[in-house]
Amino acid sequence: MHKHYVIAGAVVLASGCASLALAKETSFETVQKGKYLTQAADCVACHTVENGKPFAGGRAIETPFGTIYSANITPDRETGIGAWSDDEFYRAMHEGIGPDGKRLYPAFPYPYFTKMTREDVLAIRAYLNTIPPASNRRPDPKLTWPLGYRALMRGWNWVFFQEGTFTQNSEKSAEWNRGAYLVEGPGHCGACHTPKNTLGGDKRSNALEGNQIQHWFAPKLDNDRQNGLGAWSVDEIAEYLKTGRNRHSGATGLMGEVVANSTSKLDDADLHAIAVYLKDVTAVAPELASKPEQAQMDAGEAIFADSCAACHQSNGKGVPHMFPPLAANANAQSSDPTSVMRVILEGARTVATDARPTPSSMPAYGWKLRDAEIAAVATYVRNSWGNAASAVTPAQVKTLRSALHATTQ
Amino acid sequence: MAPHDISRRNILSAGLVVGSASALGHLPSESKTIAGEMPWAPGVANAPEPITPDGYQFVSPDEAAFIDAAISRLIPADELGAGAREAGVATFIDRQLAGSFGAAETWYMQGPWGEGSKSQGYQTRLTPAQLYRAAIKAIDEHCHATFSGKSFAELAPAQQDQVLTGLEKGEIKLKSAEAVTFFETLLQNTIEGFFSDPIYGGNREMAGWKLIGFPGARYDYRPYVAKHGEKLNLPPVGIKGRAEWTPRG
Amino acid sequence: MARKLPSADVVLVGFGWTGAILGQELTDAGLQVVAIERGSWRDTPTDFAVTFAQDELRYYWRHALFQQPARETLTFRNNATETALPMRRLGSFLPGTGVGGAGIHWNGMTFRFLPSDFIAKSHNTERYGADAVPADMTIQDWGVTYDELEPYYDKFEYLCGIAGKAGNIKGKIQDGGNPFEGARSRDYPTPPMDMVYGPTLFANAAKELGHRPFPGPSANMSRAYTNPLGAQLAPCTYCGFCEKYGCGNYSKASAQTTILPVLLRKDNFELRTESEVTRVNLDASGKRAVSVTYVDAQGQEYEQPGELIILCAYQLHNVRLLLLSGIGTPYDSATGLGVVGRNYAYQITSSVDVFFDDKIINPFIGAGSLGMIVDEFNGDNFDHTGLGFIGGGYIAGWNTNGRPIETHRTPQGVPRWGEKWKRAVAENYLKSFSLATHGAVMSHRANALDLDPTYRDILGRPLMRMTFDFTDNEHRMSDYLTDRAAEIAKAMRPREMKVTKRTGSYSIVPYQTTHNTGGAIMGTDPKSSAINRYLQSWDVPNVFVMGSTAFPQNPGYNPTGTVGALAYWAADAIKTQYMKNPGPLVQA
Fold this sequence. Notes:
The structure holds three protein chains of three kinds.
Chain A: H1 2-15, H2 17-22, H3 28-40, H4 43-46, E1 60-63, E2 66-69, H5 86-95, H6 110-113, H7 118-128, E3 142-143, H8 152-160, H9 174-184, H10 190-193, E4 211-213, E5 216-218, H11 234-243, H12 253-261, H13 268-279, H14 294-307, H15 309-312, H16 338-346, E6 348-349, E7 361-362, H17 371-382, H18 394-408
Antiparallel strand pairs in A: 1-2, 2-3, 4-5, 6-7
Chain B: H1 4-7, E1 17-18, E2 32-34, E3 44-47, H2 61-74, H3 89-98, H4 128-146, H5 157-169, H6 179-195, H7 207-212
Parallel strand pairs in B: 1-3
Chain C: E1 3-4, E2 8-13, H1 17-28, E3 33-36, H2 44-47, H3 56-61, E4 74-77, E5 85-86, H4 120-128, H5 146-160, E6 168-169, E7 172-173, H6 197-208, E8 214-215, E9 225-226, E10 232-233, H7 255-258, H8 260-263, E11 269-273, E12 275-282, E13 289-296, E14 301-311, H9 315-325, E15 348-355, E16 371-374, E17 393-398, H10 419-428, E18 432-439, E19 448-456, E20 462-467, H11 472-491, E21 496-500, E22 543-545, H12 560-578
Parallel strand pairs in C: 1-14, 2-3, 2-14, 3-11, 4-20, 14-22
Antiparallel strand pairs in C: 4-5, 6-7, 8-16, 9-10, 12-13, 13-14, 15-18, 15-21, 16-17, 17-18, 19-20
Helix pairs in contact in C: 1-12, 5-12, 6-11
């Protein structure tokens, strides 16, 4: 697989000479580093439409405030960033401000990219310069009034945006600092995993404590044993990011894409560093959930035995690396049950990677189970085998079912 | 060349996909080119479509009366439990005849038509829907002629058994249909209706499964593999569940 | 007007087991491969999920996963004095369609043939004299030996994670395995499945009689397994909806579970579905294939050129394609000349039902290849002197299912419907079991495939015509086997038993097996075989033909293990010999 990229990169380098001539002389190493960082930042995921030209933008990003379309970051001079200077590129990444002073929306996670060093940012720029230019003008954002006025972002930035390059924590190891840089900078994990306030800013004091996004719940990444990463070792976290699964869980949905496009391409040292950093995130104990109703547990048990045990086993132990164990499953015990309901409704596919090519998948149950049944079995899973989490109500299932149905129309 | 994960995604369309009750899963077909990964999309399930059990969609009232009477002899109600009638087999047969089975959609129905040997199998040019229609009419005509104007449904059970046996053995010849072929089809469909998943209209309340002790649409018997010779008493479950799936209260 | 497409290194026609194996092996060698499959994509979570796979009506009785005769079927007659009539409904065999082919709905019984099976003609002649093989019995030696194929059997078994117990490792007989099997280099990749009650009773009875039963080698996983390609399978859950159904939890070996996750990620592989290959096109000399023509779902015709064209469809379709494309001389059973269509064979089966008062069998706890096997009467494992037949078969105590429409045993004398029937079914469902015999069919001069003169498919092409019947050899052998099975049944001490021998002419109506073989057989002589020992066409060297099509006659075991081994064997020959020097690999 890798050899194709190198060859392609070289060919593209040659054809990209015209635009390169305008930039400072760039070494092959810088471009390769920039490519690596682009993967770490997973730029391609947001900046490419399905089946579209890479990095040509136009992908719809759903936010609670409406839809924003990603920018074209190919070197095209009219519709891309080919005409930008390096300083302008760095300012966009570091301050969230475009060449004409236009404020960028934080759907583009500049509050995270601000932490990146100028050297890293310019390496990314050098790599992006080698992408074939593609002409694609993105649609205008469709935001709830008055958020369409970019100038409002000045106020938002003033309250919620902390500009500044990452600074090392001298009390921690070099590896921890590298992990912190990756997670808080290019990795922008908090963009999904940190809860937001009503204006879409990070609740910084609850960093990485889980967040609902695009009808998924990105789980808590602290060191809590029950619904964080407490039961995962450093190696298991690294394994998950690299291969898409470990004995506890498999990446699916949006995280599956992150693994496929980004983390599976990082080197082992960086993955280990990320894991070391995450294991150091202070555990926040989950809220105590009240005991579920017996009627739900009884029904859930019956449904589970008949419909779920074939893969997840009656003792909840699953098949490690294939069907996630539900006993002591942190994701399943998230305070917000959105992901649990979603995988039951729509099924889920564990991402395929070179290391683990079988995309072991859960089938969809939405056509088979009614809302009350899904609520019962979700409650059962969240409260069996030592698990403890809030019950799920039929109303919650109904709401999610309608929302998902609406997005596929 | 950019990462192939995005640009080489398959072109399987997303969204809910449901198969038909006739079990063909026929959807408008479309040739596809698949490369780069195994196709998948959330919410896709080539699932069966349950019938809605109200009234009859294909059979006429006379045909319904015949079927109701015939299946009651083929699998009668008794102290062991419900028979085919109580289990909704008439509804099952009606929906089958109304669907692709009735229309012989998957069978080779091109001519020329020959009779052939027993080894060569069914060569009837009638679809099951046509077969039932023609045979029932002919059988009732036979009954009118033989039993003082009574139709099959009006006969006493012993007489009904006599007629069914006559059809089975080929002793009764029907004008417009092959008697043995019809009887075999009716018997087969009756057994199907008695033992198939309740979503198809028969095996109501899983009466057929309860009669024999079949646990239904389960998928994991590992806890029981080693329990040699034990009576397991597992309540039957259908594709759409069982009563215990509904939270009580 | 057919649209001509860019050429590919390899074109695979059909995409079931052998298509997936060839696709994986040849893309590994750097070739660019295009696979063309007439059916649709299907996969575990969307098409045979645990949420709806347990649907007896839909999958077995309405044939949702199988080939539809409306689209393609064949005509059938027992002998040339009859007019062949269409097989209008599926019955005796259930060919697959779609990605994965019949490999989706197979049982998973994965045997190896015996060393003597590969040299059936010379072995039987040597042991029993020339008279043992009557003039019209057209059996042949294969042209490849068991020892040559052994590494490839091993490769297929490890691809699939076969659960079993070896009986002969490098010549040393192992307790608990098949003492008759050919020597294998190592044990199976996973241990045998946990056995359920019925097969256990059968095995105990067999041992009482002095037989040495062993667990059926199973492609239903006995534990979670990661194969050498990195594909993962999960443990079988004994759901009893295995054969004739797709597996819902990745626990039955198939192209989808063992190969496709890896193959589809490759840049040099592409699969086109709902595209039916109608013929292979040859150049003016007739000695080189240049392309295949296929029709897509909208009726548009395409021409796909390829350097190497490999027929990977089901046995019946491979033969038909050869006939329709004019590759190889068609066989004429009257003259005995020609090769394409000769030596068609099948399987002969029978059963013995046993009924208990005191033993609860729970037949619904089953898997496609869950059971115990007695091999004392297979192949030439026993002395045939004076018996009047050659070949044999295994006797099995399988417990594959308790699906009620299919499996509701009633004792001898019970009527087929009514009060007594209902009572008998209710009383015997949980407490009955069946022994099965699975016997060889020798090839015969008159049993053949050719093109029908009358009937056509929806594209207007002539259907294939099958002329087949069991001969005295098969009946005598099957009766003998059934008698031996009845002895074991008696030793199980049931309340009563019901012996059902296979009698009369072969009928296309009741389901028996989907083990159709021959038609383009492999061999050493182009006058009596269509392909050489590497499965390469004698007539058109850039065409290879996979599948049980190659079997010169059909031994007494399920064919898939050997189909897989031959596919790997042929792939190896292509990679190590053909690619270096395209052309005939064997001089005629």
